[in-house]
Specification:
about 200 residues; four-stranded antiparallel beta sheet; four-stranded parallel beta sheet; about 25% helix
């Protein structure tokens, strides 16, 4: 029995992420411990699922020069956001995604209240830095089950360095301001973003 985890549609193709479900297992993995990601195609009213190992499309993010896979890795699950996770299986999920052609990873200090970044950092120790682009966020955090928000310049800059330490890397490719609907947009424009630009120049 398969559980559909996600369905992604681009202007060129559709993809579905599936994992087998075992009644006696906390985690859902295939027999090799690998995430099953398939391309969805339709012909004559029939739907077909095809492997995408050699079919991952790539697009540039704006004019950044970062060319990333259309199907990318969202690391919130590494923080046990949706269900409890075992660390060894979380690490294997990262390796499987990169080996399958994904080269963009998105995470946040908020996911699992720092757990996702910490677990991802353990995985990235074994992955060459030129194999992936990495995105994380500032502005939304949490600790001991309590959510917090802080879009100040000081906290934004501190957060970037803290994320780099948890992730074990010397630079972050893309920073997002997390959940701006909770923020004062004037503060984001006049304080948060300039603080991030200042870090970029460094």
């Amino acid at each position: 029995v398969f559980e559909e985890l996600d369905r992604i549609e681009t202007d060129k193709a559709k993809y579905v992420a599936l994992l087998p479900v075992y009644d006696d297992a906390e985690e859902i993995l295939d027999d090799d411990g690998e995430l099953i990601i398939l391309k969805v195609s339709e012909e004559d009213g029939e739907t077909y699922l095809e492997p995408i190992e050699d079919d991952n499309e790539f697009n540039e993010i704006g004019k950044t020069g970062m060319v990333v896979s259309a199907l990318s890795f969202g690391a919130s699950s590494l923080g046990s956001v949706f269900r409890s996770t075992r660390e060894e299986e979380a690490l294997e999920a990262v390796y499987t995604a990169i080996e399958g052609g994904m080269n963009f990873i998105d995470v946040s200090p908020y996911y699992g209240h720092y757990k996702a970044e910490t677990v991802l950092g353990k995985a990235l120790k074994n992955v060459p830095r030129d194999k992936y682009y990495l995105s994380t966020k500032v502005g939304r955090y949490g600790k001991d089950g309590v959510n917090t928000w802080d879009y100040s310049a000081k906290r934004a800059q501190e957060s970037v360095y803290e994320s780099m330490e948890r992730l074990g890397i010397d630079h972050i490719d893309l920073i997002n301001v997390h959940d701006v609907e909770f923020a004062d947009l004037n503060q984001v424009v006049n304080e948060t973003l300039p603080a991030l630009v200042e870090l970029r120049e460094k």
